[in-house]
User: What shape does this take?
Amino acid sequence: MQNSDDNGKTWKYAENEKGKKVYKNLIIGPSWFKEANVYQIYPRVHRFKNKNNDRRIGEGNLSTLVDIKEDLPRIRSLNVDTIWLMPIYPIGEVNRKGQFGSPYAIKDYLGIDPNLIKIAPDKNYTDDELQELGKLQLKELIDIAHKMEMKVIFGFIGNHCAPDNVLLNPNNPKEKGGYHPEWFFIDENGKPKPPSLDWSDTADLKYGVGIDEINKPKYSNDEDRKAMWNFMISVLKYWVEEFDVDGFRCDFAHWVPLAFWRQAINEVKGIKPSVVFVGEVYERLKEHLEIGFDAIYHFELYNQLKSLHHEIRNNDPYFEIPYIPLKIEYENSIYPEGYRLFRYTENHDEIRAAVMYGSAQAAKAPTLLSFTLPGVPSIYAGQESGEMIRPPLFKGDRGTTDFPHIDFDRDPNLTEWYRKVMKIRKENKALTEGDLEFMNSDNRRILAYSRVGGDNKIIVAINFDYTDGNRQWANLKIASNLGIEDSPDKKYRLHDVLNDETYFNTGKQLNKELVVGLDQFKSHIFVVTVDTSTPLSPYFRPGIIYQPVWNPSRNQSAPRFHRTSGVMNEGKK
Assistant: This one.
């Protein structure tokens, strides 16, 4: 297996000597990205306050780049090391939706939305002065983020822009791209066409690759296509060269030709090899990874987990849990070697996790899954405090009349849980680049698997129960990749870094079965090591992990918990 400091690792499975599927790590992409904990920010609502408690110096009540800069210490304290800024470009006015419009209706790919620029209340600015101030504030934000050891990813929308984009202005200067109506699809009235009727505030960009790939016609003159591609690539280069951004989240990337992305990714990485490209991709998934995307959305697993509460299937909220291993196997079967998925439990396109899964507590299980499976996990600002309201893309979107305030202090205990989970991921090599093996569980509400990276060995046991309320028990078959010796004389220490609890057991017992008991909304992340510090007691067994197995269905009395020693006394019949 290759190894390099310049590359990250991801997965493909092989069967070991016992016939178990172990998902092996492979080499691809910038090294920083494999360890990333991503925090998505919607700039204009990030620290939005109502008009009576306005955070902005000037007029208006939207959040600014300065507000985000000032919040970086709090964000970093969560153990976040990457921020993803949703679009910050100026917004079109033609067919604008709501008072401020959608940030996905871009008027100028090389500009900054004036509403995101913090201004002095007693000064009038020319457009050029305002843009220079915005560039300064953005550079300060990115520079401080980098000094705090955080990367910055930008939202890039290559498929569409505003119908009054500067490229459609005859007076647009060459340095802004010039005047190019031939780069758009124009209707019989001379107006630019949107890519979808629902997106009436946008205009469809013409990439001219033919109908075979994205059902769009070619240019009559291929030089026009080349010029259009070169401009869009120059946009990506601009933000890298001028502002030192570290990557791009590419909106609806499958509506842009693969050939364009191949050229764009190669050219941008030629300038800065550590730049990453994350694709919001729902079609031609394998192909996007093959041509250079560092990660694509894990939307299939996300949709599967909707069945926990939002879209219950077969009248059973836990119906899909035993099939999660099959979904990972499916990912490995269709994606190329070196693939990586961008995992999430909520974002700006989806409802809040606290709503999707019934409560912020119930959302812990799918969130922990995204942070401990192979891939790159992310959260949406406010998720860490249990926010219930999804900010609209524009006023009136989803029936809203205003932008909601995000209360980052609403649930300090929940925030601390997110902080701990992200810290655990950062501190354990197994979770960022280790092999994966699922463990058989006799309780379909508990999913368990191992992650192994060198000497770092992890067992994750996630309790998805949110309806019963009783402690859930499961007998787990120990994963083969943990290398547990089948010996009564070998003692192992299982330290639960999520709950700060430690248990012990022999290799003989662990190879027979591992028994876990989890209260509602609780999970384990065990770091497994060999222990030689103390001899095993013949009378006591560790708290939740012990033998002989106790299970109410086996007609045994419950073990008695010794509260001072924190161990279990085995039950007597």
The first helix runs from residue 31 to 34. Residues 162 and 202 are 4 Å apart (CA to CA).
